[in-house]
Amino acid sequence: MDYIGPDTGQACWRDLFELLRVHKGDQHAGEVIWPWADRHLETIRELRDIGRPQCRGARIRCHPGQYDPLQGMYALSRVLDVLIAPYQPAHDDPALLNWVTGQPWWTGRLPGRPALPALAAAIGCARISEEDFSPFFHEIVAVEQADDPDASPQLAEEVWPGFMVGSMMLVRAGTVVRAGANIMNPLAASQSRMYWAWWRRNRRPADLSHGWGSNSQWRTDFRRDYFTDGALHYNVDGYRHKRDGGLPGPAARELVRFRCNILRDLGDQWPYGHRLSEPYH
Fold first, then answer.
1. Interaxial angle between packed helices 115-123 and 69-84, expressed in degrees from 0 to 180 and rounded to the nearest 10
2. pLDDT at 3
3. CB 274 within 8 A of CB 256
4. Which of 97, 179, 205, 266 has its CA at 20 to 30 Å from residue 257's CA atom?
5. Residue 86 and residue 49 in contact, taking contact as beta carbons nearer than 8 Å
6. DSSP string, 134-164
């Protein structure tokens, strides 16, 4: 498969996002997610195709004016941001509100925890079961400081489950990590901006849709990461562009891998164009 075609059904994920937003009941899994999945089997099949290892380097083709598949899948990333929210600690910090409207990013009813595994089951995902910490598989929710300041990160607790569709990362598992102070700063690693994220209840999010209008914001691309051929491939659609005042090599590598700062909060950065591959055993 050398390209993802123009006749994509991935834009349908936005319908699911809106259905979740307006739903007033408590049974999001049974009343919203499963019925939507039954009506959109072709969208799910196409997503599985995109998750195949050979699709990692696929080009994107679409007719002018249409949403391409990655833009359609961006709505899926928002759905996932909503479904992992019930697992997150909630903060009342005004800095976590939508900085354009001053209102919460999510204005709907918060789904229950069963909604996330229900969507993963409907898609046919594999649950992440890696026992060693890796920023590819795990999002940092909190950090416990180890006695040894040079101790490498270790998983201490899973906060929410993560899932992959084929070889492609769908949503990383939320985790509590134990690490040395020279490796991770607990404050920076748990509270610095989370890039490629539309919404978090526990920290500031940052993605390319923020600040755009009601229609333009949906022209944002889904970030694709793949685990294939014994290697981790981060942000495979990155264009390696370095803007004026952009990130130096080590800082870009940190943000592409962890999607946040782990030792020092560098403030507002621009990591979106960088991509990275590294071996994984």
1. 150
2. 45
3. yes
4. 97
5. no
6. -TTTEEEEEEEEPSSTTPPPEEEEEEE--EE
pLDDT at site 223? 96
Q: Is the dihedral of CA 205, 266, 246, 226 positive or negative?
A: negative
Asked whether the beta carbons of 197 and 271 are under 8 A apart, the reply is no
Copy the structure tokens of residue 126: 């594999």
pTM of the model: 0.93
Which amino acid makes up residue 196? W
Average pLDDT, the chain: 91
Domain layout of the chain by residue ranges: 3-279
What are the DSSP calls for 164-232, one per residue? Answer: EETTEEEEPEEEEEEE-TTT--HHHHHHS-EETBS--SSS-EE-TTTTS-TTGGGGPPPP--EEETTEE
Residue type, 256: V
Helix (H, G, I), strand (E, B) or coil at 124: coil
